[in-house]
Amino acid sequence: MRTTKHRFVWGVVAIFLSCGIAVTVQGQRGGTPQPPLRTAIFDTQQNIYYADANDRTVRALPVRDNIWMIVGGGGNITVQTGDDGVLVVDTGTAGASSEKVQAILRAISNKPIRYILNTSFRPDHTGGNDPLRGAPAGGGAAARGGGRGTPIAAHEYVLARMSAPTGRTAPTPMNAWPSETYFSAFHDIYFNGEGIQMIHISDAITDGDSIVYFRRSDVIAAGDIYLTTTYPVIDLKTGGTINGVIDGLNKLLDICIPKEKQEGGTTVIPGHGRISDEADVLEYRDMLTIIRDRIQDAIMKGRTLQQVQAAGLTKDYDGRYGATTGPWTTAMFIEAAYQSLKK
Amino acid sequence: MKSNRALLALLGLLAMTVVTYGHHSFAATYDEAKTIEIKGKVVVFSFRNPHSLITVEVTDAKGKKVRWGVEGPGSTQLANSGVQNDTLRYGDELVITGNPGRNPAEPKLRLRTMKRPDGFTYGLTDEQRKATDE
């Protein structure tokens, strides 16, 4: 009898304690009023997520069953989803577009972002690191858990470019810095039942580029070493070279396996531009090799940079990749290629 | 009943064996009778349990850059000493003392002390430890 009475009393105490904890947690969440979260829309006919019904620039395109490519938010963002949570390769730019990216991520999966990989330090690929680290998950409170501790993996030189030693001012906020760096040829991750390999491409666009290979899905996030929109944006100041980009493209081609007649098979997500396959990468590599050889030949003949820029050595490709205005013109590309070959 | 207790005790002992194996002994890997000093630049700081790891790039006498793996206490123990995951940053210059690995070919060290030019220090020197022990 006494035992039954004790059990009843302890039961009541346990219920009160549970209620107290629940109220406390609710109180902490409700402390600061939060703006309502943006809701993405899904086009069932095209199988595309749009961040906004009125502005369709930021959108997610299907690549595989659990792999998506988000475009329009800076550099392309590769998204892998599964039971473990959401993994993103690159995070686009900071600011308003990052909110749209988050809205799409919440629509694609109700799991939190648990892993961020960076292919480069450049702001169009890492600008969203800070806001995405700890962003709310799609499933509401029950699915939270990514948090500010979400690891960001990248090559060591990405951290070197984004951070600064103690006592000096860093170019980016500390929360955006990679927390898991590698300095060898590879970095392996196993996530959502899939082996994922980060492969260092040295001295290409910068000295710390990576490509990310999803082995089971047969998808490669190539970062900026492969673009479908412009000539490669070689950054001489951070160790970029045209030969490094060509070497990187050759590594990409080593991994790619076409399905039939050089078409389909391994899917390549470029740093900017459309979804591609081996044939697309092959064309880009050949274009770059031809231009490299032409510029190299001009250098060997003693031509100056101005003479090379005026010679029209890229004319047959300018219609596809060239630009006379904007952040990366053909003249800038030729200068970067010329200077890196002169080294 | 007795046999159940004996079985439980045996299982407990086995579990402890597994834990001990995962959390390796420093003495087995490092020569605790020796202490050396290295000076270099932090390239990786893994603030984790059971042991934290600092990778330090050291330029040797011939000008060759060598990366040393410096193994220290776990994050909980470091945090108790005031070291957090943002205490050491990429590029920080450190002077580190510690016990070298038993294999001389491996550039590794068990962390004893570290100091940075800005005045940050961690750990006790051998003399300080002896004084504390006494």
Strand content of chain B: 35-45%
According to CATH, what is the topology of the domain at 28-224 in chain A? Metallo-beta-lactamase, Chain A
Name of the CATH superfamily of chain B? Nucleic acid-binding proteins
Spatial ordering of strands, largest sheet of chain A: 1-2-3-4-5-6-7-8-9
Number of helices of chain B: 4
Share in β-strands of chain A: 15-25%
Give the CATH class of chain B.
Mainly Beta
Unreliable stretches covering 5 or more consecutive residues of chain B: 17-21
The domain count of chain B comes to: 1
* Helical coverage of chain B, percent range: 25-40%
Distance between the termini of chain B: 48 Å
What number is the mean pLDDT of chain A? Answer: 89
Count the E strands of chain A.
Answer: 14
Please give the order of strands in the largest beta sheet of chain B. Answer: 1-2-3-5-4
Secondary-structure element series of chain B: HHEEEHEEEH
Can you put this structure into words, describing what you see?
- The complex is a heterodimer of chains A (343) and B (134).
- Helix content of chain A is 35%, strand content 20%.
- With 343 residues, chain A is an alpha/beta fold.
- Chain A has a domain at 28-224: Ribonuclease Z/Hydroxyacylglutathione hydrolase-like (Metallo-beta-lactamase, Chain A, 4-Layer Sandwich).
- Chain A is globular and about 100 Å long.
- Chain B has helices spanning 2-22, 26-29, 75-80, 126-133, and strands at 36-46, 51-59, 65-73, 93-100, 108-115, 121-122.
- The radius of gyration of chain B is 18 Å and the shape is globular.
- In chain B, 29% of the residues lie in helices and 35% in strands.
- Chain B has 134 residues and is of the alpha+beta class.
- The chains are: A alpha/beta (343), B alpha+beta (134).
- Chain A binds chain B through residues 156, 159-160, 163-167, 174, 179, 181, 183, and chain B through 43-44, 55, 67, 85-86, 88-93, 116, 118, 120.
